[in-house]
Amino acid sequence: MVRRTTTASPRRSNSLFVAALVALSAPASCAQYQQQGESLNIPRNGGGERVRVESGRNLSVEVRGSGARTPVLFVHGFASNRETWATIEPALRPERRTIAVDLPGFGYSDRTQGDYSPDAIADDLASLLDRLGVAQVDVVAHSWGCSVSLAFVLRHASRVRRMVLIGAWAFEEQIPPFFRWAREGGVGEALFELFYRERLEDRAPMGFAEGSTVPQSTVDAIERSLERPGTLRAALAAVRGQYYLQLERRYSTITAPTLVLYGDEDRVALPRYGARLANELRDGRLVVVPRAGHFPMFESAGATRGYVRGFLDDGPRGATP
To answer: Which residues contact 211 (CB under 8 A, 6 or more apart)?
Structure first.
């Protein structure tokens, strides 16, 4: 049963390609994969630690906080990194261990060749938790990271207590023609080379509600995080791993209590898919945040933080921040 706490008429997208998300931009010169042994130039401060998982990938992860409550695993979206959680993670840190990871191909993690499907990355996350000695987590995910998190709970159900899925990108119907065309060998490479040359500052507002301001510092930070060798081709590999038909058929078997949170002006993932996902989950609850787009954790930070904390702290159903 879905409980919707805030309602609004979703704004329909006029572009089939807004699914590329706000941050999908990187220099065309970075098309090569990271070579084995190549330095990632991790900053001395705030760069986290590198953890080698069972697949052989090195993931960059930042572990903070302490406390008796269930640890939280943060899973960012496509063309993003763990800085996505800057408005939420500090609020959870005093009572929980927080684990913010850069997924393979993004942030400071490896861009090596291999499988970038949600299933494969889900197994990387399970291996990461093994390395960290963490048995069970609450999961907070955004956008494409939601499909990874859904695969994670389907493959490793005992390791997830609760989930929060923000702007979930998890259905085959959400895949735009551009991404479908990119599945073809040669075609995808050409399309990504052309698209990545476009100006990020001109496309960034697509991910935000009308009237929202995208700070130049945010645009600059996104560009810096995507300037590492191999980012473009790793992102293309992640796009080619987005086959959701088999995955979505199993959503109804997920029993972990799940908060599905959307901005009412999300033109990327579209709120109607949030309602669909919450309905399909056995214990799903839908919350729609007013006057927010695909990034409610930035546009409505206080409300989003309140919903996340309340849900993970086992607050009553229907509770507000």
So the answer is: 291
Q: What are the angstrom distances between the C-alpha of 316 and each of 91, 304, 310, 320? A: 19, 16, 8, 9
Q: What is the pLDDT of residues 4-62, one digit of tens each?
A: 344 333 333 322 233 334 333 333 333 333 343 333 333 433 468 999 999 999 999 99
Read off the pTM: 0.82
CA distance 109 to 103: 6
Give the chain's domains with CATH numbers.
18-312 (3.40.50.1820)
209, 299 contact by CB (below 8 A):
yes
* Alpha-carbon gap, residue 72 to 78, rounded angstroms: 20
Supply φ then ψ for residue 181, to 5 degrees. -65, -35
pLDDT digits (tens, 9 = 90+) for 227-250: 777 778 888 888 889 999 999 999
**Phi and psi for 288 in degrees, rounded to 5?**
-110, 120
Phi-psi region of 13 (alpha: psi -120 to 50; beta: other; left: phi over 0): beta
